UniProtKB/TrEMBL annotation:
It is found in: Membrane. Belongs to the heme-copper respiratory oxidase family. It comes from Methylacidimicrobium tartarophylax. One of its GO terms (biological process) is electron transport coupled proton transport. Keywords: Electron transport, Heme, Iron, Membrane, Metal-binding, Oxidoreductase, Respiratory chain, Transmembrane, Transmembrane helix, Transport. The keyword Transcription does not apply. The chain crosses the membrane at residues 35-58, 100-123, 143-163, 193-217, 229-250, 303-319, 331-350, 362-386, 398-416, 436-456, 468-489, 521-539. This is Cytochrome c oxidase subunit I. GO terms for molecular function: cytochrome-c oxidase activity; heme binding; oxidoreductase activity. Residues 27-579 form the Cytochrome oxidase subunit I profile domain. PANTHER family: CYTOCHROME C OXIDASE SUBUNIT 1. Its main location: membrane. It is a multi-pass membrane protein.
Length: 613
C-alpha cells in the first residue's frame, strides 16, 4: 500500500521517546483523544443513570401522589431533610428540583456529551486517519470544564434549599428570585449553582466544537476529500457548527442571570415585581422574554445537536449491515447541512404563547415545517437502502432498525407543535412532553446503544455478549413506548405537564389518570431492562469473546484500519491513504463484498509502485 510511515509511532501510555506516562497523565489528565472520548462517555452514562433515577422517583409521585416512596422513604428524608421529603413523601419543591435537574442532566450532561463528545472524540480522528485531535490540550480542558459543571450540578442537591426548582429552562423572573433571601447563601444555592454548572458545561462544549471543526478541516488523511467523508463525520461537523453558533447566546444569558441574582442588575426582571406583598428592590426594565429568546436560540438547535450524531451512527451501522452503499450519500449530506441551516431559525416556535405578531409567527411556522423535509428525506434514504439488501441482523443493527420508527414518531408528533393554531391547544400539555421525549430519549438512546455495541470491539478488543444484548433490546424498545406514547394521549386530553400530583386534582383528567400507572410501571421495568446492558458493558471488557481481526464487522471506514485497540498518540502504525468513498460494499467484480477506503485495488496500486521506482 502506498503510504507514509509515521515517525516513531507511540505506544499507549508512552511519551514520544518511549518513556512510560504516569497513570494520572494517562487516565486522568490525558491528552489522548481516545481516553478523553472514554472519559466523556463514562461520565455521560453515569449522569444519564443519575437523571434516570430522578425520573423513577418522579414517576412514583405522579402515580401515587402524597404517598411515601417505598424502600427509599427513610433515605430520602435523611438526604433531603424533613422540609423537602417529610416521611419520604415528595413535596412540590422536591418534585420541581428533580424535574429541573432531570431535564438539565439528560440533555446537557448525558446525551449530548455522549453522542457528540464521547463518540466524536474517540471515533472522528480514527475515521479521518488522524493521529489525534487538532488541539489535544484544549481537548483535555474541554472535558474538565464539562466535568466541573457536572460536579457543581450534582452538588447543588446538598446546599440549603436543595437544587434548582425553576425548570430545566430556568425562566425568569422566577429564576431571578428563586432560592434567595433569608436561609439561602447568595452563591451556594440551587439556582445559582445551576447557572454556574451550565456556564462550565457550555464552556467545555465550545472548546470541544472548535477542536472538532479544526480537526475535520485540517487532519484528513491524503485522498479523504469532502465527498469521501463518512456520514458520521459530516454529522459531527454540522453539529459542531450548530453548537458554535448557538451556545454562546445561552452562556451570555447565564452570565446575565447570574448578575441579576448576585449583582443587583435586572436584565430579565421587569418593573413592578411584587413578591410576598412587597415590591422587589431591583432597577427594573428587564425583559423575561429576552431570556426565552436567548435560551431557545440554543434550545431548539440543541434538538438537532442531539439528533444529527444519531443519524451518523445509524448510517455507519446501516451500510455495514445491509452490505450496500446508502441509497443516496449526497442526499444525506445535503440534508444534514440543510437541517443545520434551517435549525438556526426556528427557535421561536417554542414561544407562540408569548403574543408575537402574526408575521413573525408565520415566518417560524414556515421554517418549522420546512425543516421536516430534509429530516424525512434522510429517513427515506435509510428506508430505501434496505430494499434488496442482504441484512445482517446483529446487535448494532437491531438498535439501528428501531431508530427509524422512533424517529418518525418523534418527528411527526412535532408538526402540530410547529403550527400556532394547534400549539395553542397542545402547549404545556403532556403531548409536548411525549413528542419531545420521543426525540430526546428513545430515538437518541437507541442510537447511543447501537454505537456502543458497534464500536465496543474496536475500543476493547472484545465483543459484547449477544444474549445479554438481546435481553437488553426487546424490553427497552417495548417499555420506551410504554412510557411516552400514553403521554400523547394524556396531552390530547388536556393534561398539564407541570402538575406534581399527576392530574389527580383536575376533574377532566380523571378518565386518563390510569395511564400514569402504565407509564410508571413501564419506567420501572425499563430500569430493570438496563441491568443486562450494565452487566454486559463491564463483563465483556474482560470476558467477552476476543475479536479475530482488527475489522470484525468487515467495514470500510478508516477506524477499522487501526490495531485493536488503537495505538497511543498516532493511532495508525502506518499513515493511511484513502482511495475511495466510505461505503463501497458489494462492488461488482470485487473479491470480497467490501472495499475498505485504505486498501488500493490492483489498478490503484500499479501507478503508486511506478512512482516509487
Amino acid at each position: 500500500m502506498d503510504s507514509h510511515m509515521t515517525e516513531n509511532p507511540v505506544e499507549p501510555g508512552q511519551h514520544g521517546h518511549g518513556e512510560p506516562l504516569p497513570w494520572w497523565k494517562r487516565w486522568v489528565f490525558s491528552v489522548d483523544h481516545k481516553v478523553i472520548g472514554i472519559q466523556y462517555m463514562v461520565t455521560s452514562l453515569l449522569m444519564g443513570l443519575f437523571g434516570f433515577v430522578l425520573m423513577i422517583f418522579m414517576r412514583w409521585q405522579l402515580s401515587y401522589p402524597g404517598k411515601p416512596v417505598p424502600i427509599f422513604a427513610h433515605l430520602m428524608q435523611q438526604v433531603f431533610g424533613s422540609n423537602m421529603a417529610p416521611g419520604g413523601v415528595m413535596t412540590p419543591q422536591l418534585y420541581n428540583s428533580f424535574g429541573a435537574i432531570h431535564g438539565t442532566i439528560m440533555i446537557f450532561m448525558a446525551l449530548v456529551p455522549a453522542l457528540f463528545a464521547g463518540f466524536g472524540n474517540y471515533i472522528v480522528p480514527l475515521k479521518l486517519g488522524a493521529p489525534d485531535m487538532a488541539f489535544p490540550r484544549l481537548n483535555m480542558a474541554s472535558f474538565w470544564c464539562f466535568f466541573v459543571g457536572v460536579v457543581i450540578m450534582v452538588a447543588s442537591f446538598f446546599v440549603p434549599g436543595g437544587a434548582a426548582k425553576s425548570g430545566w429552562t430556568s425562566y425568569p423572573p422566577l429564576a431571578d428570585l428563586a432560592d434567595s433571601g433569608p436561609g439561602f447563601h447568595p452563591v451556594l444555592n440551587g439556582q445559582t449553582l445551576w447557572l454556574l454548572g451550565m456556564a462550565f458545561n457550555i464552556t467545555g462544549s465550545l472548546l470541544g466544537t472548535i477542536n472538532m471543526i479544526t480537526t475535520i478541516f485540517q487532519l484528513r488523511a491524503p485522498g479523504l476529500g469532502w465527498m469521501r467523508l463518512p456520514i458520521f463525520v459530516w454529522s459531527e461537523l454540522v453539529t459542531a457548527f450548530l453548537m458554535l453558533l448557538a451556545f454562546p447566546p445561552l452562556e451570555s444569558a447565564a452570565v446575565m442571570q447570574l448578575m441579576d441574582r448576585l449583582a443587583g442588575t435586572s436584565f430579565f426582571s421587569p418593573d413592578g415585581l411584587i413578591v410576598g406583598g412587597q415590591r422587589v428592590a431591583v432597577s427594573g426594565g428587564g425583559a423575561p422574554l429576552l431570556w426565552q429568546h436567548l435560551f431557545w436560540f440554543l434550545g431548539h438547535p440543541e434538538v438537532y445537536v442531539q439528533i444529527l450524531p444519531t443519524m451518523g451512527i445509524i448510517a455507519e451501522i446501516w451500510t455495514n449491515n445491509t452490505r450496500r452503499p446508502l441509497w443516496s450519500y449526497r442526499a444525506i449530506v445535503y440534508s444534514e447541512i440543510a437541517i443545520g441551516l434551517i435549525g438556526m431559525v426556528v427557535w421561536a416556535h417554542h414561544m407562540y404563547m408569548t403574543g408575537m405578531g402574526q408575521g413573525v409567527t408565520t415566518f417560524f411556522q414556515i421554517f418549522t415545517t420546512l425543516i421536516s423535509i430534509p429530516s424525512v428525506l434522510i429517513g427515506t434514504v435509510f428506508l430505501l437502502s434496505l430494499w434488496g439488501a442482504s441484512i445482517r441482523v446483529n446487535l448494532p443493527m437491531l438498535f439501528a432498525l428501531s431508530w427509524l420508527p422512533l424517529f418518525a414518531i418523534g418527528g411527526l408528533t412535532g408538526l402540530p407543535n410547529g403550527w400556532s393554531s394547534s400549539d395553542l391547544v397542545l402547549h404545556d400539555t403532556y403531548y409536548v412532553v411525549g413528542h419531545f421525549h420521543y426525540m430526546m430519549a428513545p430515538t437518541s438512546l437507541m442510537a447511543l446503544f447501537a454505537g456502543i455495541y458497534y464500536w465496543y470491539p474496536k475500543v476493547t478488543g472484545r465483543m459484547m455478549n449477544d444474549f445479554l444484548g438481546k435481553l437488553h433490546f426487546w424490553p427497552t424498545l417495548l417499555f420506551f413506548n410504554g412510557i411516552f406514547f400514553p403521554m400523547l394521549i394524556q396531552g390530547m386530553n388536556g393534561m398539564h405537564r407541570r402538575w406534581y400530583d399527576g392530574g389527580a386534582g383536575w376533574q377532566y383528567a380523571q378518565h386518563v389518570l390510569w395511564l400514569n400507572h402504565v407509564m410508571s410501571i413501564s419506567a420501572w421495568l425499563l430500569a430493570l431492562a438496563q441491568i443486562p446492558f450494565i452487566i454486559n458493558f463491564f463483563w465483556s471488557a474482560k470476558y467477552g469473546e476476543k475479536v479475530k481481526s482488527d475489522n470484525p464487522w468487515q467495514a470500510t471506514t478508516l477506524e477499522w484500519a487501526t490495531p485493536t485497540p488503537p495505538l497511543g498518540h498516532g493511532n495508525f502504525p502506518v499513515a493511511p491513504t484513502v482511495y475511495r468513498g466510505p461505503y463501497e460494499y458489494s462492488v461488482p467484480g470485487a473479491e470480497r463484498d467490501f472495499l475498505p477506503q485504505w486498501e488500493p485495488t490492483a489498478e490503484e496500486k500499479a501507478p503508486a509502485e511506478k512512482v516509487h521506482v
